[in-house]
Amino acid sequence: MNPIAAFLIGSALATSALAQKISLVGGTVINPADGKIVQNAVLVINGDKIESIASRKQSGVPVGSRWVECDGKFILPGYIDTHVHFFQSGDLFTRPDGADLNSVRPYKDEVGWIKSHLADTFARYLRCGITSVVDVGGPMWNFEVRKTADSTAKAPRVAVAGPLISSVSREKLDLGDPPIVKIDTPDQAREFVRKLAAQNPDLVKIWYIVDQNHPVDSFRPIVRATVEESHAHKIRVAVHATELETARAAVEEGADVLVHSVIDKPVDDAFVKLLKDRHTILCPTLVVFERYGRTFANKLNLTPEERAWGNPEVIASLDVTKIPSDKLPERIKTALAKPDEALGRIKKTYDVALKNLKTLEDAGVPIAAGTDAGNIGTIHGPALFREFQLMKEAGLTPMQILQCATANAAQLFGAETGAHIGKIEKGYFADLVVLNSNPADDIAHASDIESVMKNGVLYPAYTLLTAPAP
After folding, report:
1. In a domain, 437, yes or no
2. Helical ranges in 180-338 per DSSP H
3. Same domain, yes or no, for 445 and 337?
4. Is the pTM of this model over 0.85?
5. What's the rounded Cα separation, in Å, for the pair 361 and 104?
6. How many whole angstroms separate alpha carbon 13 and alpha carbon 4?
7. Contact 158/133 with Cβ under 8 angstroms?
8. Are residues 308 and 185 in the same domain?
9. Are 278 and 349 in contact (CB under 8 A)?
10. Are strands 449-454 and 457-460 parallel, antiparallel or unpaired?
11. Half-sphere exposure of residue 316: CA atoms within 13 angstroms, side-chain side
12. What is residue 319's DSSP assignment?
């Protein structure tokens, strides 16, 4: 039996751990915020907070604390996924506006399933060492998700935005509480932000969609009004903008966060300087760009972590060959008939997006890791490890990737909670991940998880998904 499991059994499986001091002894503590590494460390947890961190030679083991042996282990701040959507499951039926399969599974049944499986989804995040997430847009019931997470032990900390403000509507997602709201005038934008402000959102989200019917400048006054009204209520604004000129316009109008990479062309020096001058945070969300196309073309490349820790019902649904051909939308039929074209589009996207990420990282723009989990094929929880792989392909070092998933991500989470997560420092929340191998040597080791601590309670990783899904 491993030392952490023995500790928890001796402590009535973590029920008494919250009330007592715990000393994690002998492990290597990695603080990606500054790259500091403490070997043979003593990390003291008092309740839900970190009390101290020092080498064993400096501190010894505090009297009165429970001692958990961590020799050979690596301890990091809990990971943070800064781009998820709880109103989406990740399964094949979750975005009927993109692939309408209502004839196979009515969307109202899909939403009912999502709501009934929230506890399972929360636990899957913890299993992956993800102790905080940011939901950047969904129906008004998103605020209930945050409330539920706050009262659930085996759940990440959750920051939320409400419905997305957009130039387009998505009627197929509207069951009376739409996740996307079409706004036509600046006055409507201000009124809607005031409605959101009553729910105390962590962010306001703009879905800045550009096409031949919606050029960049036509929606810009609404972006400006949304930002001004949000900032007047001391709420930050996140923007979905995947084109360079759209992203530039959003930041010029005061956006605090960009939640996607620019994928249409290389970023230029003026754009890089703009992000740096405005202290804009960028969340690249690389993994989502491949998952729709790969799913529809029956070329899905789920990682071992996703297959092990993703919801099995969600994963089973992603085999499009199980859907009767007469019920398949044309988009999926086309992808199945021409899979090489789908894969070619993905490669073209990554040829731009990965280079842009490296350019922005090298320039010192704060990058926060996120996945867009919940979209078709992007699995809640373990999708973060595929995101790490893609960030590595972009040329980021393991420590840079870890920084993106901890200290930088905490900045995007924001507010008082964001100021106390993402680092291993005195007074910070005791949200930790304990690994069997060193992720600073190889980012693939970031998923080699022995245990997870959330709010000062330590869970052996294997215990987090033992209960069957509701």
Report:
1. yes
2. 186-197, 216-232, 244-252, 269-278, 288-296, 304-309, 312-317, 330-337
3. no
4. yes
5. 43
6. 10
7. yes
8. yes
9. no
10. antiparallel
11. 3
12. -
CATH number of residue 363's parent domain: 3.20.20.140
CA distance 99 to 315: 17
Domain identity same for 245 and 379: yes
Tokens of 324: 């009767």
173 within some domain: yes
Q: Which residue has the tokens 């999926």?
A: 332
> Which residues lie below 8 Å from residue 180, measured CB to CB, with a gap of 6+?
137, 163, 164, 166, 168, 169, 170, 173, 207
**Residues 361-384: pLDDT tens digits?**
999 999 999 999 999 999 999 999
**Tokens 């842009």, located at residue:** 356
Task: Give CA–CA dist 146/468, Å, rounded.
Answer: 23
Angstrom distances, CA of residue 365 to CA of 67, 74, 309, 377: 40, 28, 32, 29
Sheet holding 157-160, edge to edge: 79-84, 130-135, 157-160
* CATH number where 41 lies: 2.30.40.10
CA-based radius of gyration for the chain: 22
* pLDDT tens column, 192-242: 999 999 999 999 999 999 888 888 999 999 999 999 999 999 999 999 999
Is residue 470 in some structural domain?
Answer: no
DSSP run (H or E) holding 415: helix 415-418
- Domain coverage including residue 45: 3-78+424-463
